Amino acid sequence: MSFQHIRNATSVLTVNGKKILIDPMLSNPGELPPVPFTRSLRRNPLTPLPVAIQYFEHMDALLLTHRHFDHLDKKALSVLNKKMPVFCQPEDEAFLLKAGFMHVHAIEQSYEWHGIQMKRIKGRHAPGIAAKLLGPVSGYLLNTPAEGSIYIVGDCIFTPAITEVFRTHQPDIAVLNTPRAQMLLGTIITMTAEDIVSIADLSPSTKLIAVHMDAISHCTFKREHLRSFLKRRGLEHIAVVPNDGEVIDF
Q1: Whose CB has fewer CB within 10 Å in the chain, the N or C terminal residue?
Q2: Strands 2-7 and 247-249
Q3: Topology of domain 2-249, per CATH?
């Protein structure tokens, strides 16, 4: 198994010999608008792709946690192969079919594909009424007998349901979106550095990967901040904070 962090929440997971593209935002810097209901008026993304756009022509499947524009943008919809299978939450199925994807698999609970077992974990993008404003979001626990398990947590705040996943399944790897993204009134709508520490305490055998930083305007915590936070506490070992384009082999 290997994991390549592309940018923001976009990544490529290679498992059982299949390349799975996760949450593709493929636009060039400044091609996307500011994030609504936030304090920033900067256009997005803030950073370029670390690979050529042609790289994404060779994916075997697409996995979508939700369809906010920093996880699925118009550029991705225009360039991706519409014949490859797409795995998503049920709420996004109709949109993806209308967008032209021919093989959309809405995962209610679980789905198996090429020996990869996928279990959907319902998430919450924000506390309280802000969760309704932001809409549904899911995470996915992928497992194979030979290569182990990886939990793509998605844009979720740290909830009791996520705690239960770590406590019950103890995934080998987990990818956490930890940019401390904020809305207008200061509501935190993603995980934070403190959540990384809590999850490491909860599931110490899980290798943690922290992403979704530096590329979108409402994300207040950068990679350098997270690395400093972990170093000050002597916790550099609990999480990998990859640069854009970096490949992590397991």
Answers
A1: C
A2: antiparallel
A3: Metallo-beta-lactamase; Chain A (3.60.15)
Strands 104-106, 110-113: pairing is unpaired
Phi, psi (rounded to 5 degrees) for 21: -85, 130
CA dist 37 and 2 (Å) reads 35
Q: Report d(CA 151, CA 140) in Å as an integer.
A: 6
Close Cβ partners of 21 (under 8 Å, ≥ 6 residues apart):
10, 11, 12, 56, 59, 61, 62, 63, 80
Q: Which two tokens stand for residue 130?
A: 């802000």
Give the tokens for residue 246.
């970096």
* Bridge partners, residue 15, by sequence: 18
Taking only the tens place, the pLDDT of each residue in 146-200 is: 999 999 999 999 999 999 999 999 999 999 999 999 998 889 999 999 999 999 9
pTM over 0.90: yes
Grouping H, G, I as helix, E, B as strand and the rest as coil, residue 135 is: coil
- The domain segmentation of the chain, as residue ranges, is 2-249
Distances (CA, A) of 239 to 39, 161, 193, 214: 29, 21, 10, 17
Rounded distance, CA 190 to CA 233, Å? 22
